């Protein structure tokens, strides 16, 4: 990971931390729990995954003229390889998926 990307990921982590720590909703719920006689230890874990974008022809990057109805018709593929990998990791089967696990 290059230095610029590492700095951006660090900034994303800091932004998430700031958002959670400054949330009035979260602070209110924590206060309600404390009023019930409990101390609160909040630990969040964020996993940030990065995938390099696939190089696609410009025509594939432009929005569809038909309001998205042709989305699934792009060369017969509705999902990128990263989409398919993610769905499989959630154990979601993809119709017309040629790969058998």
Helix- and strand-based class?
Answer: mainly alpha
**How do the SSEs run, as a string of H and E?**
HHHH
- Major sheet size, sense and barrel closure: none
- Total number of beta strands: 0
Low-pLDDT parts are 64-74
User: What share of residues are in beta strands?
Assistant: under 5%
Measured on Cα atoms, how large is the radius of gyration? 21 Å
What features would you describe in this structure?
By secondary structure, this protein is an all-alpha fold. 44% of the residues lie in helices and 0% in strands. The protein has 4 helices and no strands. The longest helix is centred in the first third of the chain and has 19 residues, at 3-21.
Short account of what is shown:
The chain has helices at residues 3-21, 24-35, 58-61, 81-89. By secondary structure, the chain is an all-alpha fold.
Keywords for this structure?
single chain; 101 residues; mainly alpha
Q: How is the topology of this model organized?
A:
Layout (H helix, E strand, L loop, with lengths): L2 H19 L2 H12 L22 H4 L19 H9 L12
């Amino acid at each position: 990971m290059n230095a610029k990307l590492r700095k951006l990921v660090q900034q994303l982590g800091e932004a998430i931390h700031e958002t959670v720590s400054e949330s009035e909703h979260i602070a209110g719920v924590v206060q309600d729990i404390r009023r019930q006689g409990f101390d609160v230890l909040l630990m969040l874990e964020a996993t940030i995954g990065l995938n390099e974008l696939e190089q696609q022809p410009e025509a594939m990057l432009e929005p569809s003229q038909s309001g998205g109805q042709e989305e699934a018709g792009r060369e017969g593929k509705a999902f990128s390889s990263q989409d398919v990998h993610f769905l499989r990791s959630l154990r979601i089967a993809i119709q017309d998926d040629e790969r058998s696990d």
